[in-house]
Amino acid sequence: MLVTMKKIMHNPMRQLPRQRKEHGFTMIELLITIVIIGILTAAALPSFKEFIINQRIKTASFDFVSSLAFTRSEAIKSNKNIALLPKNALQLELGWEVRESSTEPVRKDQSTYPSITISCISGTICQYSMFRPSCNNVTYTPDGRIFNSASGTFEISSDMISNPQKRCISVDGSGRVFSKRGGC
Predict the structure, then answer these.
(1) How far apart are CA 19 and CA 14, in angstroms?
(2) Could you list the residue range(s) of the whole structural domain that residue 110 is in?
């Protein structure tokens, strides 16, 4: 028995106690990961800004079409002329309101759209208004038509990015509203 103990003690292949492995990341691995994340973020940021602006354009166009439909339905429902008016003279991008006249209470109030432009680019709506001697007013009559058979085309865009996805909103004399992607 003594011989076997000596053999085990002097055996170079004997099992050493296992060392525990430490779990986690080294500082170098963490720094490399942070650098890679920074590079990817810097590359994605410009396209993310473009995405946000294009979503604002889309939202503004949907809200504008919705407000025109609301204006038309209010005119039919109340059997009165109802107008969609810019809050600030000529600038629809600063918001608009739906009301019977400039002295009546507001029926719908739309807030501003930062970095978005809404331009009345053609049609008689751009030249005539029942309430204000300015453009951008859309007045519906009790039969759901545009006052004085006016028509107009509005372009929603932005100058914050080089190639925005423009939207074109058209209103014909019968009061119907059409929306399409792209410029007018």
Answers:
(1) 15
(2) 30-181
* Local structure of 93: helix, strand or coil: strand
**CATH code of the domain containing 48:** 3.55.40.10
3-state secondary structure of 171: strand
Q: Could you tell me if residue 8 is inside a domain?
A: no
Number of CB atoms found within 10 A of residue 93's CB: 20
pLDDT of 131 reads 46
Provide the 8-state DSSP code for 125.
Answer: G
> For residues 135 and 153, is the Cβ–Cβ distance under 8 A?
no
Distance CA 168, CA 118 (A): 10
pLDDT at 130: 47
Q: Give the global pTM.
A: 0.71
